[in-house]
Design goal:
The protein is an alpha/beta fold. The chain has one domain (5-308): Thiamin diphosphate (ThDP)-binding fold, Pyr/PP domains (Rossmann fold, 3-Layer(aba) Sandwich), CATH 3.40.50.970. It has helices at residues 5-30, 45-52, 68-73, 78-85, 119-132, 151-162, 210-225, 254-261, 267-277, 283-306; strands spanning 60-62, 109-111, 139-144, 167-173, 202-206, 231-236. Strands 2-1-3-4-6-5 form a 6-stranded parallel β-sheet, with helices on both faces. It binds thiamine diphosphate (TPP). Residues 65-66, 114-116, 143-147, 174, 176-178, 243 line the site of thiamine diphosphate.
Length: 322
C-alpha cells in the first residue's frame, strides 16, 4: 500500500503518542502516583494506529482492559485519560472508573471493558444500531487472542455474519492470554481460520507493521460500509511488558522477549527506519513528533495533578442502582 507522506507520519505519530502515554503511565505507577491496574499496550501500537487510521469519527470502537492505545488512536483526550488514571474529577469518569472503563461516545469510543471478550458482542450490538439508524458507519471490536476462546466471540461472529452487520473484529494476538500462549489454548494454527466457521473473511497480518494493518483494515472497513458484512483480522504482535504492571512475565522465553524488543521487531523503530530509508521523513521530523508527544503527556500530567479528587457527595452519581 502506497501512502502520502502525511499518512505515513500520522501512523508514526499515533504510535509514538501511545508509547509515550504507556511508558509514562508505567513510571507514574511505579512511583506510586497511580492506583488500580494498568495493562500496557506498548509493543502493540501498530494495530490501533493502522485500524483507526481507516475510521471516521462516526465509526465506533469497543475495547478491552488493554485499551489506552485504541482510545488514543480513535481520538480520545489524553488529558482526561491521564486524570482518570490519577482518579481525579477531571477524568473521563470523574476518577471513578480507572483505566479499564474509559469511554468517549462523541469520539466513537464506546468503552474499554474489564470483562474479557465482553466488547465483542457489544460491537455487534453497535453495528446493528448503526445500520438500524441507516448510517454507513462501522463498529470495530478490539480483543486479545485469549478472548477468542470465550463463547462471546463465537456468538458474536455468528450473529454478525448471519445479519450481515457492519463490524470489523480485530484480534490482537500478542502471544499470551495472561501467561497462556494460544497454542496451549486452541488447535488452530491461525486464529483467523475461525472466520471460516462463520463464512466471513479472515486474514492474519503482521501486527507490528502499521501499513500492513491499515491495508487489511481498509478492505474490512470498506466491506462493512458497503453492507457486505463483517470480517475478522488477526494481528500478530507482542506485548512488551507483563500482563499488567506488577506481572514479572516469568513465563516469557527471554530470548523471544529480547527478539521482539529489537529495532527490527519493535513497531516504532522499525517504522522509523522504513520512513528514513525511504526518504519519507527526516530524523528531525521524527524527533519533532516524539517531542510533541512528550509535551502532550507532560501537559496531561499537569492537568491531572491540578484536578481535584472527586467530592464525597458525588459518590452516588453516575452509578447504577438496583
Ligand atoms: C470473563 C473474564 N475472565 C477472566 C478475566 C481475567 N483476565 C483478565 S485479562 C485476561 C487475559 C486476556 O487475554 P487476551 O484476551 O489475550 O488479551 P491480552 O491481555 O493479551 O491483551 C484474563 C483471563 C476477566 N477479566 N474476564
Amino acid at each position: 500500500m502506497e501512502l502520502e507522506k502525511k499518512d505515513y507520519l500520522a501512523l508514526y505519530r499515533t504510535m509514538v503518542r501511545i508509547r509515550e502515554f504507556e511508558e509514562t503511565s508505567r513510571r507514574l505507577m511505579l512511583d506510586g502516583k497511580l492506583g488500580g491496574f494498568l495493562h500496557l499496550y506498548s509493543g502493540e501500537e501498530a494495530v490501533a494506529a493502522g485500524v483507526c487510521s481507516e475510521l471516521a469519527q462516526t465509526d465506533c470502537i469497543c475495547s478491552t482492559h488493554r485499551g489506552h492505545g485504541h482510545i488514543i488512536a480513535k481520538g480520545g483526550d489524553v488529558r482526561k485519560m491521564m486524570a482518570e488514571l490519577y482518579g481525579r474529577d477531571g477524568g473521563y469518569s470523574q476518577g471513578k472508573s480507572g483505566s479499564m472503563h474509559i469511554a468517549d461516545i462523541a469520539a466513537g469510543i464506546i468503552g474499554a471493558n474489564g470483562i474479557v471478550g465482553a466488547c465483542i458482542p457489544i460491537a455487534v450490538g453497535v453495528g446493528f444500531a448503526l445500520r438500524y439508524k441507516k448510517t454507513d458507519a462501522v463498529a470495530v471490536a478490539f480483543f486479545g487472542d485469549g478472548s477468542t476462546n470465550r463463547g462471546t466471540f463465537h456468538e458474536a461472529l455468528n450473529l454478525a455474519s448471519t445479519w450481515c452487520l457492519p463490524v470489523v473484529f480485530v484480534c490482537e494476538n500478542n502471544g499470551f492470554g495472561m501467561s497462556t500462549p494460544p497454542a496451549r489454548a486452541t488447535n488452530n494454527r491461525f486464529l483467523s481460520e475461525r472466520a471460516a466457521a462463520y463464512n466471513i473473511p479472515g486474514v492474519t497480518v503482521d501486527g507490528n507493521d502499521p501499513v500492513a494493518v491499515k491495508e487489511v483494515a481498509a478492505e474490512a472497513v470498506r466491506r462493512a460500509r458497503k453492507g457486505e458484512g463483517p470480517s475478522l483480522l488477526e494481528c500478530l504482535t507482542w506485548r512488551h511488558h507483563g500482563h499488567f504492571i506488577g506481572d514479572p512475565a516469568l513465563y516469557k522465553d527471554p530470548a523471544e522477549q529480547a527478539l521482539w524488543l529489537t529495532p527490527e521487531r519493535d513497531p516504532i523503530p522499525r517504522f522509523a527506519k522504513r520512513l528514513l530509508d525511504g526518504k519519507v521523513a527526516t530524523d528531525a521530523e521524527l524527533d519533532e513528533i516524539k517531542a510533541q508527544a512528550a509535551e502532550e503527556v507532560r501537559a496531561a500530567i499537569a492537568f491531572a495533578e491540578a484536578s481535584p479528587d472527586p467530592s464525597p457527595e458525588s459518590m452516588f452519581e453516575h452509578v447504577y442502582t438496583s
